[in-house]
Amino acid sequence: MAKAFQIFLYYLCYPLMKLLFKIEIIPIGENYELSSEKSLIIASNHTNFLDPIIGGWALTRYFKKLGFSFNDILPIRYIAAAEYFDFLKSPPFFPVSLIVASFVRLNGSIPVLRGSKENLEKKLKVAVDILNKNGKIFIFPEGKISPDGKLHQGKRGIGYLHKTTKAPILPIAIVNLYQFGKLQNFIALLTGRKRVKIYIGEPIYNIYNLEIEDIVLVTMEKIKKLIEIDEVLQETKSLNIDFEKHAIFTKVIRALFLLPFLNNIPDQFLKFILQKTTKDSGPVLSKPGTTHAIEVLYTFPQRKIEVFRNGILHGIFTYFWHIYLSQPKAIRNRLKLVEKLITNEIENILNHKNEIKILSIGGGSCRGVIQAINYLAIKNKLKEKRILIFNLDKHPGVFELSKKLINENNLTNLVNFTGIIGSAKKIEELGINNSFDIIEIVGLLDYFSDEECIKLLSFCYKNLLNKNGLLIWGNIRPNSEMKFLKKINWPHMYYRNLGYLIKIIHSSDIPISNTKIYEEPLKVHWIITHKKVTV
């Protein structure tokens, strides 16, 4: 009965979850290998009476997208307070109690009498039996809805279940449902200003040798870390940046025609079309992934009129590729975001320093640093200040571009530029002995493995960044144009979702509490900042 009801509920709630709650399911770390032959304990925070419905739906949706069947996923059995099963006295009041009691019964919930003196063995006997038969149990370790939306101390039940059955624990966090019933919060969800997010953590295995209380502590700490991840995600609206976005008509053309065409056209034919329709394709196809190729994308807004000098058709097609593809817009959005963050940080530093040292790793992204300095110079905020820019790159030719930008913006009296020839992968061997106020590594880590990212970020944060300094880096994320980039021979990139970003940050021993993660509006790039606050 529970399985059939949960399948019905999954499809019934689908439009509501997608349209009203706009649920975003965010896996952190490795996927759990689900199967009908494996038991599983799902542990979640609890801020709202809708948590069982939304949490269960999200987990079902998540595992369905991974290719599992309903037989693998369902039924999920929920541990619920015994008073919810009473048709007449169930909270909050009659006749709502009829609906609540009917729901928990149809959903296969397991009644547990809260506050009773029964030992855990008796209270959780049914749950233990289900887990021993490869079932799946959903439990809220706090034992009740949080009165203030914060995570509270866990009860011993979760520890007992794991210690007794040895079933792995899958921690999840449900965010932005607290006080859902309040009008302002409901409107925020309805209008998209808030999204309900479900963070799915890595499963916890083999801690059943610990004491029950310690198992509880480990589980609650994992849930806490998932909630903390949401706290570091930042909205870009407050930065007041004029980002490039896709108009509704553009989205329709992309979805119905452009993306299917690009993803299925033969590689050589695609390159032929690009070569024949726009001269901007020259550097992109001949030197994919280089500073010169990306400069073509950066500078298009300043060349909009010039592209028509080679003919009306050339101008139209060039405009089309720059506007209807996400990659060019997203690259320019990334530059705007980096420029804004660096501008804000330099303004903060100006209050207590006359000399500011900046390290830009990778030649192409140094443009964001220079543009930020130029903006502040125009605003007359850099009087009697000195900016030292150190630019690290394997190819000394890219330094000329940075010097050209400094000259064009009349910054030569303000900026002292130094090029450092070398590989960022061997940065510890280059003898860089300065400590920097800002370190910028945007774009480069797209091409680095996890181990290389961790090594570079750790070294920069621990050895090169000043106290109260800012480390800025970025990474491309999975997107709809990955096949297109592969077809034009763009160098191999590591597309990282939020879970992999968090894993890299944790592995780099950079405090998550001093981290901010920004999502570029077209959802092609992440920008991450770390403030080095030392005690």
Spans where pLDDT lies below 50 across 5 or more residues: none
Spatial strand order of the main sheet? 8-14-15-13-12-9-10-11
Q: Helix/strand/pairing class, anyone?
A: alpha/beta
The percent of residues in helical segments reads 40-55%
Shape field? globular
The count of helical stretches stands at 20
Report the sheet with the most strands, covering strand number, pairing sense and barrel closure. 8 strands, mixed
Instruction: Tell me the fraction of residues in β-strands, as a range.
Output: 15-25%
Number of strands: 15
Radius of gyration: 27 Å
In whole angstroms, the N-to-C terminal distance is 57 Å
Q: Provide the residue-averaged pLDDT.
A: 91
Q: What is this entry, summarized?
A:
The protein has 535 residues and is an alpha/beta fold. Helix content is 44%, strand content 16%. α18 links the parallel β12 and β13 (465-476).
